Every structure is written in structure tokens, then in C-alpha cells.
Amino acid sequence: IGYPARAAAGVLSEDPRRFGSLFLLVVLPGTQGFYGFVAAFLIIGNIARVETLAQGMQLFFAALPIAITGLLSGIHQGKVCAAGVNLVAKQAKQGMKGVIFAAMIETYAVLGLLITFFLINSVQF
């Protein structure tokens, strides 16, 4: 959220009316944190069933897909969203193009969450 928020603050200092068109570009990179939160709750729901070190390690490694894809896609999505904010600053009606580019990166975080979900559910208790 840091990259696009800094860029949006500069745009909003010039034209506060663009808040609505910038809001989605600013908050979109934060969804990766939400996906990690969902994965954590899925793991916490199973933690009481863990009886062996192997099961605990399986849950740990099941979290890695969302951890890695969430981190990397969040960083890159923040940069793309910041570029989208710059696009809105120059051409206000083109903001959805920036959102579409950011959504393409979002796909990888969703896939990471999906893989984590499948891995958590495959742990044998």
C-alpha cells in the first residue's frame, strides 16, 4: 500500500476530487495481507489436531505458497498501482487500465492462497 499511497497523496494534493478513482489503486495491494490472514485462520483451525512434528511441518510448508506469492505479488502490485496512480494524474479517465494491470498480478496471490488451501486440507491427521 505504501507505493501507491505516496503517489496518490501527491495527486490528491493537486486535485482532491480524484480520491474515488485512486482509492481502488491504493487499497488493492493490501489484499495479499488479507489472503495471508485467511490462510492463518485455516491453519489455526487445524492446529489442535497436530500430534506429530511431521504434521506441524506440513502445515508450516502449506503456508509457504501464500507467504511467497503474497509477498512478491504485493510488492510488484504496489509498483503497478503506483504507476496507475500516475496514469490517473495525467489522464483521469484511464484509471481502470491501471486497475486491470494490478488485477493481473492479483491472480498470482489468489493462486497462492488456493494452493495453500489445498495443501492444508491434504494434511493427514
SSE order and pairing:
Elements: H1 2-14, H2 19-27, H3 31-47, H4 53-90, H5 95-121
Your description of this structure?
This protein is an all-alpha fold and 125 residues long. It has a single domain, classed as lithium bound rotor ring of v- atpase (Four Helix Bundle (Hemerythrin (Met), subunit A), Up-down Bundle), CATH 1.20.120.610. 83% of the residues lie in helices and 0% in strands. It is elongated, with a radius of gyration of 18 Å. The model has no long low-confidence stretch (mean pLDDT 95).
CATH architecture: Up-down Bundle
Strand element count: 0
Helix content: over 70%
| Helical stretch tally | 5
What is the H/E order? Answer: HHHHH
The fourth-level CATH homologous superfamily is lithium bound rotor ring of v- atpase
Query: Could you give a short account of the major beta sheet?
Result: none
Taking all Cα atoms into account, the compactness measure Rg is 18 Å
Low-confidence spans: pLDDT under 50, at least 5 residues?
A: none
Secondary-structure-based class equals mainly alpha
Which fold does the CATH topology refer to?
Answer: Four Helix Bundle (Hemerythrin (Met), subunit A)
Summarize the structure.
The chain has 125 residues and is mainly α. It has helices spanning 2-14, 19-27, 31-47, 53-90, 95-121.
List the defining traits of the structure above.
mainly alpha; 125 residues; 83% helix; F/V-ATP_Csub_sf; Four Helix Bundle (Hemerythrin (Met), subunit A); ion transport; transmembrane; ATPase_proteolipid_c-like_dom
